[in-house]
């Protein structure tokens, strides 16, 4: 795994350098018991020292501990990761609140304050994994400030460090990983044709890349051109959501979804079904909220929604996001009980058994949202499965800023333990500076493509003026492709295998190619051409393509 070097560490907290923040906060130094030490740190392999500073007698959430950062070490336009470990303890550690976790904030105070949030629990060390970037050159001294837990909760800090991300080193490591995950040896074989020329052209990559679309953008020629030439899948931005298809009770509108589906059918693009339900209160239409107090009425409406949508479109959507953003909302579970989430999956599976049914949520890959840790996501999946839900995939929305490869990979590694396919379902990389946006986009795409659990990536739009996040565009409003879009096209080109050569004395030609569909042409010395289409799929053994058959 790519590791950081000492020169990448720009700040390393000194146990004696911490000062209390808050009128009564008391700091003390301690040594953790060997058996309680956390595992080595993410990516860089830093082993915890065991020495930590305890901030006690905190009167307010803002109270904690601070340490000055050497002036000049933090630079603009550089992505930094905050590393180390955090734990908490109630004022009386054996009291009733012993097992309650709390969000702890590590703030880098300098101009626009950068803040990393960690979910910490008593008796456990939580690793800090968040990232930040300075937009302007630093003016004045920077300060690391650890705070945020409720008053009366003691906060522990071990080995706080700030590390400059080394993308080149990470990309070099990912190159070999990608080769193992996404490529396979292929042997082209033709008897009695030694010396014949061989040309192999890859037609499509086996790793889907797509985008959300809506009724407006499919009327834009520049959008349609980029979409049809560079993307493989689609998802409807709003047109399949319940608040769109039934804004008023009993008044169904599937016409907009039908038109988008027809467009995708003509373009040969499969479509993800997003979404059957949305768990967040603010995204539930008013008439559903109005009947929320009547359990029977709400359950009947839920059943009608599932049967109406999947009865109409069975077999048309390979994926469905069943109950969107359950880590951040509980609208249906709070009113119908926790089992309703699994019921939604069970009913959907019965009506459309061929569709993969996904959970879908945001911030899981960012390590900066206490509500959306990989561990909590896995717990949600397990709860659904215990309720009989046929969970078919895990969706990471991917609304990211300042991405760090090791942090993304750590989340993917943990989610891979479910043995479920992972898709990045709504990718947009927010960054006003388009050159940095290109770099950030490359970080996310390379991590996704190199990870065996990830089976596809879908953008949440790509054209300026037609996106939820306007600082994430790949294509400008006038249709020109910007630096981020060019980087995307370059990566697609890099992940395409074309080969030329000649059959050896045994009538064989070997190459290593990315998974996907191909066309091979062998031209014999007499001018005879033999053509054959084939597909390279995942496999350890070489694929033998016999041109004689």
From TrEMBL:
The keyword Hydrolase applies. It comes from the Eukaryota. InterPro entries: Galactose-bd-like_sf, GH, GH10, GH10_dom. Residues 192-491 form the GH10 domain. GO terms for molecular function: endo-1,4-beta-xylanase activity. GO terms for biological process: polysaccharide catabolic process. Signal peptide: none annotated. Pfam families: Glyco_hydro_10 (PF00331). Keywords: Carbohydrate metabolism, Hydrolase, Polysaccharide degradation. The keyword Hydrolase applies. Belongs to the glycosyl hydrolase 10 (cellulase F) family. This is GH10 domain-containing protein.
